[in-house]
Amino acid sequence: DADLLIDILADLRDSEVAAHLLQVCCYHLPLTQVELPISLLTRLALTDPTSLNQFVNTVAASPRTIVSFLSVALLSDQPLLTSDLLSLLAHTARVLSPSYLSFIQELLAGSDESYRPLRSFLGHPENSVRAHTYRLLGHLLQHSMALRGALQSQSGLLSLLLLGLGDKDPVVRCSASFAVGNATYQAGPLGPALAVAVPSMTQLLGDPQAGIR
């Protein structure tokens, strides 16, 4: 029943369940048990702006501890957990102002700023992980000068971005074209390096998926 669902969601929002889910995952549960609560947190944040704000405010309240947890969870061997978290981060980057996004940049860059986590996600064997990663990059590239700079300075990172244009999975190709498009729109000094993407983008004009064309 629609009215009952609205009431349930309002109770979850008013009880700050999104914040509590993140806290219990971070402080009380072993990593093997966080997949389900993170899945619920992701779905709450995707459907309810207040729950999304509760998520980012909880991160801001304890950034070191929670970013450390998110780093470990993203690089776990649980593809559904990684996929859900990337979806949550992509939605955060899409909806909220750039002032909220520094922790996402940190998660992708890693502690040594080698962008090892991002490289891992872009080459992940699971289609959903790659697709959510490209979607996240597409939103971040609209705001993040640091990420645009990394594509220029970090060896092989730009090649990984462009590799998605020829991915076997149509959802990944679509997300990759979105990311490359936003990288080009905001390119600045990165522009000349993106010229190598033109043949791949041209080839997508003949893609079997209408949305990609």
UniProtKB/TrEMBL annotation:
Query: InterPro entries per the record?
Result: ARM-like, ARM-type_fold
Q: Entry's Gene3D superfamilies?
A: Leucine-rich Repeat Variant
Q: At the top level of its lineage, which domain of life is listed?
A: Eukaryota
EC assignment? 2.7.11.1
Reaction equation(s) it catalyzes: L-threonyl-[protein] + ATP = O-phospho-L-threonyl-[protein] + ADP + H(+); L-seryl-[protein] + ATP = O-phospho-L-seryl-[protein] + ADP + H(+)
Under what name is this protein listed?
Answer: non-specific serine/threonine protein kinase
**Catalytic EC class:** transferase
> What is the protein's species of origin?
Macaca mulatta (Rhesus macaque)
One Gene Ontology cellular component:
cytoplasm
GO molecular function terms listed in the Swiss-Prot or TrEMBL record: ATP binding; protein serine/threonine kinase activity
In terms of SUPFAM superfamilies, this protein maps to: ARM repeat (SSF48371)
User: What keywords are annotated for this sequence in UniProt?
Assistant: ATP-binding, Kinase, Nucleotide-binding, Serine/threonine-protein kinase, Transferase
